[in-house]
Design a protein that fits this description.
The complex is a heterodimer of chains A (about 240) and B (about 120). By secondary structure, chain A is mostly helical. Chain A has 8 helices and no strands. Chain B is flat, with a radius of gyration of 21 Å. Classes of the chains: A mainly alpha (about 240), B mainly alpha (about 120).
């Protein structure tokens, strides 16, 4: 039988979308991580868009430069954005160490993967520590879920001059609830990310991925970790800059 | 198990794009954009060089640039198959839809607030 005798219908197709293999050319777990992150992106954008809508409809809003102007433990007033700048730097840096871990994984260099993973975990803990300080500072000012500074004089410190008290009180409540919910949800993601990173680091130390022949797990966890960094970029812009 | 290793091997050629030099470059870009944002927030806006109405969209554009660099290079999406990129980017359009709907809606909420502050 010559091949010319096969009709076009029976010919085996080998293009990416002809079936039989994944057209995406990624391993199952990695693809599912991407889809999980997409769903997580929807969750976070719902929260951030709700924040935007409430802020748009409010006549006044606490000024970021007045609310976030301290470096806990060092400077009490007059240093707007400095502390959150440090937090952002830490998180971006830990994202970089994560890519370096993934890159080392591609070269099957176990020692380097361990080193960069440990740096990433340390970065995650530093960020969480900073966030704890930030929350503690805001809490000491009187902000918490459905709680705002008790006295009108104290509340006025966070607003531009001339905003009526009733407007201040209602938007400060919304600000407090949204701030703690959204940064809390993000902080929870960082926390789980750190836990997962620790598990993966232990597995690398035990040689699990060396035996398996690939460090693909490091890559999948890396995707999650970068996503946490990505969300922070948006939280940072919409809570601290705008 | 076997599918995992084959996927790794076939991907390997594409991974060459992300070496240490490139990682450092993307890191510096992210750091640079953040520094520009701080420059706007701490110097240009308080000094009145850029009015706040221009600063806010500028922050959002710079943030989207940062998001692009993180997703494309750190998350490696730029080097994946086009099918995967499209599958992941297209649903984001729903988010844009929600932004449009809710910003429009929030303008009406102002009128619903009684008494008006």
């Amino acid at each position: 039988m010559s091949t010319a005798a096969i009709s076009p219908v029976d010919e085996v197709k080998s293009t990416p979308w002809s079936g039989g293999r994944s057209p995406f050319n990624v391993e199952y777990g990695k693809m599912m991580m991407w889809f999980f992150l997409l769903s997580d992106a929807f969750t976070f954008s719902s929260l951030l868009i709700a924040y935007g809508a409430l802020r748009f409809s409010a006549s006044a809003w606490p000024s970021a430069a007045l609310v976030f102007q301290s470096v806990p433990g060092l400077i009490e007033h007059g240093a707007p954005l400095v502390f959150v700048g440090i937090m952002t730097f830490i998180l971006i840096l830990s994202s970089v160490t994560m890519v370096l871990a993934v890159e080392a994984g591609h070269r099957n260099s176990r020692k380097e993967v361990i080193m960069w993973m440990i740096f990433t975990v340390i970065g995650g803990f530093m960020f969480l520590g900073c966030q704890a300080l930030e929350w503690n500072h805001l809490h000491s000012e009187g902000f918490w879920w459905s709680s705002i500074p008790a006295s009108p004089e104290k509340l006025q410190e966070f607003f531009a001059v001339g905003v009526p008290y009733a407007a201040q009180a209602s938007s400060a409540h919304q600000f407090a609830n949204l701030f703690f919910t959204i940064t809390g949800f993000h902080g929870f993601h960082v926390f789980t990310g750190v836990i997962i990173n620790i598990i993966i680091t232990v597995n690398v130390l035990l040689g699990t991925y060396e035996k398996r022949g690939s460090y693909l797990m490091v890559e999948k966890v890396g995707l999650y970790w970068h996503f946490v960094d990505l969300v922070w970029v948006f939280v940072f812009t919409f809570f601290y800059l705008v | 198990m076997s599918t995992e290793t084959t996927a790794v091997h076939s991907e390997h050629e594409e991974h060459e794009g992300m070496d240490k030099k490139r990682i450092i470059r993307v890191f510096l870009i992210l750091l640079g954009i953040t520094c520009i944002e701080f420059l706007i927030a701490l110097y240009l806006v308080p000094k009145g060089i850029i009015p706040i109405q221009f600063a806010n969209p500028l922050y959002i554009v710079l943030t989207l640039f940062k998001a692009f660099y993180i997703v494309a290079y750190f998350m490696h999406l730029k080097f994946e198959k086009t099918g995967l990129i499209v599958t992941l980017i297209v649903p984001i359009l729903f988010i844009i839809g929600l932004i449009l709907v809710l910003t429009n809606e929030s303008h009406h909420w102002i009128d619903l607030r009684l008494p008006r502050f």
